[in-house]
Design a protein that fits this description.
- With about 650 residues, this protein is α/β, with parallel strands linked by helices.
- The chain contains 22 helices and 24 strands.
- The strands form seven sheets. The chain has a six-stranded parallel β-sheet with strand order 3-2-1-11-12-7, with helices on both faces.
- Helix 11 links the parallel strand 11 and strand 12 (about 285-290).
- The protein binds 5'-O-[(L-methionyl)-sulphamoyl]adenosine.
- 5'-O-[(L-methionyl)-sulphamoyl]adenosine binds near residues 13, 14, 25, 260 and 292.
Length: about 650
């Protein structure tokens, strides 16, 4: 007997920043598949969530001056956050998991212990290149010019105690699994995994860290936190109640179909099944590695300033148009080049012209020629059979493509039907039939056939553009029962005397040039206006400021202050001088010790957090295009002597 339940997941997203159109693509695609399965009568469990632990989040929170929990709460649950985005995009997930939920944390601890107890996790030493200021280990290949890829400073060989997972033990069963057929798709990714990772030899995986705290503690060895990928991958199981009693659906829904982006296929198709084998649970039914949305062939990134905001696009074009564009345009398994122009052209040609026109033309004609309600008399012609049989053929092919997760191919089929229906209008020329009283039955037949073709197309489009389909069903007079999959090619489902309700235009045509301009203007970073130059001072007044080059001897953070650093500097006088500066947000003490900087020395002494400050370090400050202040300390070249005066 085939299963009547279906479990599908998205990756859990890092709440380290706002999500962009690439993340949205992944979730919308998974949503369309989940909706399709529901349409086909499966009891679906659709899970998404957030991957909230790890060093990066810990660092980001520190930068923002809040606790890691507050930081992730804001990005996940705050206004315009991840939950809001999925609501906006009409995502139909049944469950949402955050890896900071207590039940997940406790379950991960039990899972880790289980793998330890069965001998698959052991204690060893992690060897690597260590960057002390960044508290990070790097491998030789990650270094940039032999230095830390994050801060550019020298690294040194180091070792730390860590737990390891016996990944090497699972190399053979994982390879067999990969080669067995449909576990990993698209098939091209199988060779990539085997050639790049399995054949060179799978090494045991380091699965604990001691260099940061923001993670799931190993309960039997405090000080170690569970490697974030172990914590993250098991979300798919804990969210069903695996090793916890928050839920009780594991038996019912396991195993999952894991939809993931191509760069995390390795984790999902090698490490993930190996760990499931270790805990004795079935591996996923499928891991599907989709392609990326790229811009001008390259990655979207904040530093390039080319990150596309789904909120902006949804507001400009509508949620359904955006969902549709993402899934219609790009083959799901390959990369797709995003552009505003492509987005607008797809909306215009498929949604406004092909689909929107079909619905509005047919309902308008039924209103015009029949006052909105068709007469039940019929007069068939051979041409009608072609449209009818195409409907059945398309429905069948659509299902094959959807089952194979070839979403854009499934849509291609639907648009073949919509195109044929539009052509049927031109061939049958209802406006000519309407002029002849004796052709009333023929006219009604043509218009009825059109509604039936549309009804089938709308059923198939529902997983992609659910709200628009509901409106269109309403317009063509299709009740709930006529919106179900089992009627997709059941010609004659609509009542013979169906009443249509012409409504608002489903997808208004977009003026390409105007919209492109609008988007371009919005995406242009606003340059903050330069501050006006202050009123003149005399040279004598300026000369009263005693500014000199000082060398930083010590620097430390002031306790209980997020901003303040306390310095002792050599100002050239032979005596040490203490200066406080509110620049901790921009610099760590280790970065500054030994540097030469410019300071003004003859400001009145000021007390800050109980410490005297005798002077001020000079900085260059400017607001960036996000309205945030950027600060650069005036660091002076090492060959300028200490005590040299600025003039
Ligand atoms: N937290 C991990 C996943 C853990 S799953 C157990 C992670 N998070 S992520 O936020 O960086 O990425 C989540 C998903 O978004 C990945 O599948 C990734 O491929 C996808 N995308 C991120 N940028 C993308 C595009 N530009 N295009 C398409 N998908 C992309 O990885």
């Amino acid at each position: 007997m085939s299963r009547s339940t279906f479990y599908i997941t998205t990756p859990i997203y890092y709440p380290s920043d706002k999500l962009h159109i690439g993340h949205t693509y992944c979730t919308v695609a998974t949503d369309a598949i989940a909706r399709y399965k529901r349409l086909r009568g499966f009891e679906v469990m659709f899970l998404t969530g957030t991957d909230e632990h790890g060093q990066k989040i810990e660092e980001k929170a520190k930068e923002a001056g809040v606790s890691p929990q507050e930081f992730v709460d804001r990005i996940v649950e705050g206004k315009g956050g991840i939950l809001d985005l999925w609501k906006l995009m009409n995502i139909s997930n049944d469950r949402f998991i955050r890896t900071t939920y207590d039940y997940h944390v406790a379950a991960v601890q039990r899972i880790f212990r289980k793998m330890y107890d069965n001998g698959d996790i052991y204690k060893g030493a992690y060897k690597g290149k260590y960057c002390t200021p960044c508290e990070s280990f790097w491998t030789e290949s990650q270094l940039v010019n032999g230095c830390c890829p994050d801060c550019g400073r020298p690294v040194h060989d180091a070792e730390e105690e860590a737990y390891f997972f016996r990944l090497s033990k699972y190399a053979k069963p994982v390879q067999d699994l990969l080669e067995s057929g449909t576990f990993l798709e698209p098939a091209t990714r199988v060779n990539e995994m085997i050639n790049n990772f399995i054949k060179p030899g799978l090494e045991d995986l380091c699965v604990s860290r001691t260099s940061f705290k923001w993670g799931v503690p190993v309960d039997f060895d405090p000080g170690h936190v569970v490697y974030v990928w172990v914590d993250a991958l098991f979300n798919y199981a804990t969210a069903l109640g695996y090793m916890n009693d928050r839920y009780d659906d594991f038996g019912k829904f396991w195993p999952p179909v894991n939809i993931v982006g191509k760069e995390i296929v390795r984790f999902h198709s090698i490490i993930w099944p190996a760990m499931l084998m270790s805990v004795g649970e079935p591996v996923p039914e499928k891991v599907y590695g989709h392609g990326w949305l790229v811009i001008d062939g390259g990655k979207m990134s904040k530093s390039k300033g080319n990150v596309v905001d789904p909120y902006v696009l949804a507001e400009k074009f509508g949620v359904d148009a955006l969902r549709f564009f993402l899934l219609r345009t790009f083959p799901f398994g390959s990369d797709g080049n995003f552009s505003n122009e492509l987005l607008i052209n797809t909306i215009n040609s498929d949604l406004a012209n092909a689909l929107g026109n079909l619905v509005s033309r047919s309902t308008a004609m039924i209103e015009k020629y029949f006052g909105g309600t068709l007469i039940p008399e019929r007069e068939a012609e051979p041409l009608d059979d072609e449209l009818r049989s195409l409907t059945a053929e398309v429905a069948e092919k659509y299902a094959v493509q959807m089952d194979a997760l070839q979403l854009h191919m499934a849509l291609e089929e639907v648009f073949r039907l919509i195109g044929r229906a539009n052509k049927y209008i031109d061939e049958t020329m209802p406006w000519a039939l309407a002029k002849d009283e004796s052709k009333r039955a023929r006219l009604a037949t043509v218009l009825y056939n059109l509604l039936e073709a549309q009804r089938a197309a709308l059923i198939m489009l529902t997983p992609f553009i659910p709200d628009s389909c509901a409106k269109a069903f309403e317009q063509i007079g299709a009740e709930e029962a006529a919106r179900q999959w089992n009627t997709v090619s059941a010609y004659g489902t609509l009542p013979a005397d169906v009443t249509v309700h012409r409504g608002e235009t489903l997808f208004p045509r977009i003026d390409v040039a105007k919209m492109l301009q609008e988007l371009e203007n919005m995406q242009k970073p606003a340059t903050p206006p330069a501050k006006p130059v202050l009123p003149d001072v005399t040279i004598d007044e300026f000369a009263k400021c005693d500014m000199r080059v000082c060398k930083i001897l010590t620097c430390e953070a002031v306790k209980k202050s997020e901003k303040l650093l306390k310095f002792t500097v050599d100002d050239g006088s032979g005596k040490e001088r203490q200066i406080l500066s509110g620049i901790h947000k921009f610099y760590e003490p280790e970065q500054l010790i030994g540097q030469k900087v410019a300071a003004i020395l003859n400001l009145p002494t000021r007390k800050m957090m109980g410490y005297e400050s005798n002077g001020m370090l000079l900085s260059a400050v400017k607001e960036n295009d996000k309205g945030e202040e950027e600060l650069h300390l005036m660091i002076v070249s090492d060959d300028v002597p200490v005590g040299a005066q600025l003039c």
